[in-house]
């Protein structure tokens, strides 16, 4: 067939009985039954095959081989008397004539059992990732990742996009995260930066006459790990379209992604076009997050005007949000547990009350509400109160109350039966993001997201803000996020391709024309030669695969992930280097 085998370990069937074959793979397990009878499981990339030892000579050979050694087995295929219907090769077994060791495992004890590697400590799994990847369950996710990327490439090519790779060594650029810097040996004191994203390059491609660009782009950001974010590097389906609006981008994404999700996901249902569109302000008000999970039918209601003055101190002078849940029969113990989890995730307390089978309000903060009988009709109308309902409340500054309510929506949707359609992929667009915000550290006006986004209203709205006719915080950006099942897959935008509008947008955050030219020289200059309107997006490949595999940790879908501290403990990176290397780079490391 190929290499040194005639068949793979997942290929042999009953019709191969009587044939002389050679299989190769890892010796996964040996079960001895007597002095001359043993059952050996051989595993390769494609599956497993049972090999039956029936001679003392071959038993001696097998006993001298440690598990996970690679071996070659040549022998006769025969039908099994006790069929194992759990595996594709369960109807046959191989009776060996010869067994050869191809690569000896010199360790009698393994760090963990290969088939149960996912139960091992994560640091141990990452240190011995090559063993972890031998586990078919782990390996299959990497195989699936490859299939998904192949499908994405095919779909983008069919839509007329040209795959173009952009540089890895480039200039440092202020794009929201810390750069990874690379010293330039031939230019002492100067540094390259690994790209946080191909943002400037893809926009320059649009100015270069390329109509539709994409790539499976590596991105490098020196930021902390999360469950859905790998430190160091990640990959995204980066795309950009010339002479395009957000509608053009939406049309491509809505055509490309649902078939991929339906084909490769653990669920076979995905939102079809058009995806639901939710303005940012509405998302925060109704879902408590800019990453709404539309599988959950719960929404947030504002009850500030009704409950602020009921005599409950945590509500006094605060914004108050409520999440009503119909037909909810959770016990008080279960409610208290959910409220505790909400507090851990949001950093703010959650409160509650419920209605009994007769519609009476009780439990939690009910006594404060019942003391104000005149507000109960209004509260009933606002929340749609009916018998057997639970209402969870949050209070604080507006952003804090929204965030807590958003966590409550997620927790209650998962806990209360009938409020979450778990087995589907629910996409939505979050649109109309604010262009600017007040920075938490600086206390001054800053870009809210991508500084290269076109402000809705263009130059006119920027001039109004400059003249004080409108608040800059009210300016919206022609920007959009793609969200699936409560996970942000990507941010995208119609780009600011006009140099004059770009300069004016940066002036509002105290960056003058010369500074803009200095920070983005190539892109700015390219735009002065006549750039087309263009728009794009870049869904995260790692996050997509994580969703498709229904994994909680993104590290499960990356072949060689770093740990939470951005360390590759298998390779020992980051590591110290030799003094001569530092001298070549004109670097002196000081003790700290």
Account of the 3D structure:
- The protein is of the alpha+beta class and 592 residues long.
- Among the domains are: 14-103, Nucleic acid-binding proteins (OB fold (Dihydrolipoamide Acetyltransferase, E2P), Beta Barrel), CATH 2.40.50; 296-415, Gyrase A, domain 2 (2-Layer Sandwich), CATH 3.30.1360.
- The chain has 18 helices and 22 strands.
- A hairpin with a 2-residue loop joins strand 2 and strand 3 (47-53).
- Helix 5 packs parallel to helix 16.
- It is found in: Cytoplasm.
What is the secondary structure topology, with strand pairs?
Elements: E1 20-32, E2 38-44, E3 47-53, H1 56-63, E4 70-79, E5 92-103, H2 122-127, H3 129-132, H4 136-158, E6 162-163, E7 180-183, E8 191-194, H5 199-207, E9 212-221, E10 232-242, H6 246-264, E11 276-279, H7 280-287, E12 301-302, H8 304-307, E13 319-325, H9 332-346, E14 350-355, E15 361-362, H10 366-370, H11 376-383, E16 390-396, H12 398-415, E17 427-434, E18 436-438, E19 445-447, H13 458-466, E20 476-484, E21 487-494, H14 499-507, H15 513-519, H16 521-527, E22 534-537, H17 541-549, H18 579-584
Parallel strand pairs: 6-9, 11-17
Antiparallel strand pairs: 1-2, 1-4, 2-3, 4-5, 7-8, 9-10, 10-22, 12-13, 13-16, 14-15, 14-16, 17-20, 18-19, 20-21, 21-22
GO molecular function: aspartate-tRNA ligase activity; ATP binding; catalytic activity, acting on a protein; nucleic acid binding; transferase activity
Protein name: Aspartate--tRNA ligase
Subunit structure: Homodimer.
């Amino acid at each position: 067939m190929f290499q040194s085998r005639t068949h793979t370990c997942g290929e042999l069937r009953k019709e191969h009985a009587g044939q002389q074959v050679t299989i190769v793979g890892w010796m996964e397990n040996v079960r001895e039954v007597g002095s001359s009878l043993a059952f050996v499981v051989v595993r390769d990339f494609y599956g497993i095959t049972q090999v039956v030892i029936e001679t003392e000579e071959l038993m001696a050979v097998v006993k001298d081989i440690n598990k996970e050694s690679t071996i070659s087995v040549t022998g006769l295929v025969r039908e099994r008397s006790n069929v194992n219907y759990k595996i594709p090769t369960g109807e046959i077994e191989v009776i060996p004539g010869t067994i050869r060791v191809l690569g000896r495992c010199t360790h009698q004890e393994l760090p963990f059992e290969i088939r149960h590697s996912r139960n091992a400590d994560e640091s141990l799994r990452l240190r011995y990732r090559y063993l972890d990847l031998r586990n078919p369950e782990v390996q299959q996710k990497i195989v699936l990742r490859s299939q998904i990327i192949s499908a994405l490439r095919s779909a983008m090519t069919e839509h007329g996009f040209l795959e173009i790779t952009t540089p890895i060594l480039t200039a440092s650029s202020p794009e929201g995260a810390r750069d990874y810097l690379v010293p330039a040996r031939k230019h002492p004191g100067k540094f390259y930066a690994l790209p946080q994203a191909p943002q400037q390059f893809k926009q320059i491609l649009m100015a270069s006459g390329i109509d539709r660009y994409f790539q499976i782009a590596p991105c490098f950001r020196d930021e902390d790990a999360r469950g859905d974010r790998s430190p160091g590097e990640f990959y995204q389906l980066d795309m950009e379209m010339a002479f395009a609006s957000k509608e053009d981008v939406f049309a491509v994404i809505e055509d490309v992604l649902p078939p991929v999700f339906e084909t490769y996901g653990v669920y076979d249902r995905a939102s079809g076009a058009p995806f639901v569109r939710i303005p940012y302000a509405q998302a925060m008000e109704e879902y408590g997050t800019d990453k709404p999970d539309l599988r959950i039918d719960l929404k947030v209601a504002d009850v500030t005007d009704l409950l602020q003055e009921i005599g409950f101190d945590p509500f006094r002078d605060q914004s108050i949000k409520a999440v009503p849940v119909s037909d909810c029969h959770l016990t008080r113990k279960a409610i208290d547990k959910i409220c505790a989890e909400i507090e851990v995730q949001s950093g703010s307390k959650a409160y509650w009350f419920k209605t009994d089978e007769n519609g009476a309000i009780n439990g939690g903060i009910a006594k404060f509400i019942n003391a104000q009988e005149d507000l109960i009709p209004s509260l009933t109308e606002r929340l749609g109160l009916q018998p057997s309902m639970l209402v969870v409340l949050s209070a604080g500054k507006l952003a804090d109350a929204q965030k807590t309510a958003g966590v409550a929506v997620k927790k209650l949707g998962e806990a209360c039966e009938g409020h979450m359609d778990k087995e589907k992929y629910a996409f939505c667009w979050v649109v109309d993001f604010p262009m600017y915000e007040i920075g938490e550290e600086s206390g001054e006006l800053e870009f809210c997201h991508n500084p290269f986004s076109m402000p809705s209203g263009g130059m006119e709205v920027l001039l109004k803000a400059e003249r004080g006719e409108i608040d800059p915080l009210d300016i919206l950006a022609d920007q959009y996020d793609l969200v699936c099942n409560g996970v942000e897959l990507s941010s995208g935008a119609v780009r600011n391709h006009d140099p004059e509008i770009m300069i004016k947008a940066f002036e509002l955050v105290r960056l003058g024309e010369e500074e803009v030219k200095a920070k983005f020289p190539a892109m700015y200059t390219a735009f002065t030669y006549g750039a087309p309107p263009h728009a794009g997006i870049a869904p995260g490949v790692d996050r997509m695969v994580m969703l498709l595999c229904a994994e909680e940790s993104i590290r499960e879908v990356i072949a060689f992930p770093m740990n939470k501290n951005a360390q590759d403990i298998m390779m020992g990176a980051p590591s110290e280097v030799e003094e001569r290397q530092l001298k070549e780079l004109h670097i002196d490391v000081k003790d700290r």
